Amino acid sequence: MKTHIEKNTVQETLVIPLYGRKLCTEQFPNLFRDEKAVELIDRIDYDFSALEKRSKSFAHRFGALEVAMRENDLMIEAKEYLKDHPRAALVNLGCGLDQTAENCDNGTCMIYNLDLPDVIAVRNELLPESDRIKNVAADLNDQKWFDKIDAENGVCFLAAGVFYYFKTEDVKKLFCEMAKRFPGGRLVFDTANRRAVNIMLKTWVKEAGITSIADHFSVESIEKDIIPWMKNARVSARGYMLGYNDLKDPSVPRLFRLMAKLGDGYMKMQIVRMDFTE
Fold first, then answer.
1. Domain CATH number, residue 213
2. Residue 206 pLDDT
3. Number of domains in the chain
């Protein structure tokens, strides 16, 4: 029996990035493969016709590539952390139906997938828990979820497309509290500048009920916008389209590489890494 997803619900926000990962798997298999995304699409009862139609457009193909590169970048950082902390916890914040943490599984780490209760209800149907994988219903702004993470052997937090929904003051509070609670841990997430988030406002931010982004999280410069907050963390950033991959694969149109350069530069699309100091 397929899992039903209603339109115009929080659960519907799971579908677009999932479909993007499927699209990228089919169109750029040398750069990214997420066979689980392809499988999950077939297990969901949802009218994908609008997404299928839009998927043929140039913009949506590039958007799928963005989704995939962001996931690849986070995986690179997580796998690097696991080399030194093989029994660490990998924590996927705002996980949706994403399997970034599972795709980094080294056989000994613990995996936690966190999202709102409605989202976790769908995830439990499609991606149930196991001995080392826990699905946790939580509001990230309610830091009681800290208590559900066993970070004794280290912890690496991953967040893809999450903090744009948050107000800057809430992001600052969350980061500072995480740094204090999880010394030796790592947080990896994506950012973009106000210009880019204004563009997002026309699509998914507006659909989330956010009518103004004046006080929502965006980053022009980590030196000005993040580092001053973090007294007990080392902070670095790389472009998320070209910072980890040059995209010179033959399957990637030359114009996509130009757009990627524009994204990393003009839009300040970055992967930010915080290493919380002991």
1. 3.40.50.150
2. 52
3. 1
